[in-house]
Amino acid sequence: MMWRIAVVCLSLLAAGPSQAQEVIRLARIADIPDQYVGGEMLRAVYARLNIKLEFEDVPGKRALALSSAGEVDGEIQRIGTLSRDYPTLIQVTPAINYIEPAVFTTKLHFDVVGWNSIRDYSIGIVRGVGSSEAGTRGMARVTATTSLESMVKMLDADRFDVMVTDLFSGLVAVRKLNLEARIHPLSPPLERISIYHHLHERHRDLVPKVGKVIGQMEASGELARLRETLIKQVLSGM
């Protein structure tokens, strides 16, 4: 994808003396633009610690299987309750990013007032995306798709009434498939969710160090500026 080009510039910025650098490999949910943004934000964080990041692009459920088993070193960003279900993954605080789950549709028009607004509709979500799974839990007609792009195509084909994904990623996917005239987000987003970097328990000693840098970059406004820059790069590269 064209928006992946941005990784080259940021990689060069993050690169220090390569022979001295430790390498951390993180699971990244494939083809989710917000995972790309969060990964590049973390790349800048880890550069402060002279640690190089690499990413393993896999589906959401596969990512959790790899990270919780320690086959990779952690997750870029997940919801704050992740450690309850995956106790080998330790949450790094403060939050690295946030997402705004939103409702996308082709034909419907209504004001969104939380998750109950969509309870009576057929709903598409991406399997392994914790915020979508939690928000739609107990709803009668939920279809879990294998990827964001396949979900957008299924909505376009009227396989369900609405789909749920984070607002930014949904806008990118719809634009990429040239479906902006047909698929639109409803307002406001369902909620805003803080999301956290997670490391496998074998990196327990690294957790406070990474958290300290995140906190410093958040306090200075650097994280927010970097997020804004990355989002603009992704959208302008479409």
From TrEMBL:
The scientific name of the source species is Bradyrhizobium hipponense
- What is the protein's name according to its record? Amino acid ABC transporter substrate-binding protein
Q: Which Gene3D superfamilies match?
A: Periplasmic binding protein-like II
Signal sequence range:
1-20
Which keywords does UniProt give here? Signal
The record, for SUPFAM superfamilies, names: Periplasmic binding protein-like II
Asked if Signal is a keyword of the record, the answer is yes
UniProt entry tagged with the keyword Signal: yes
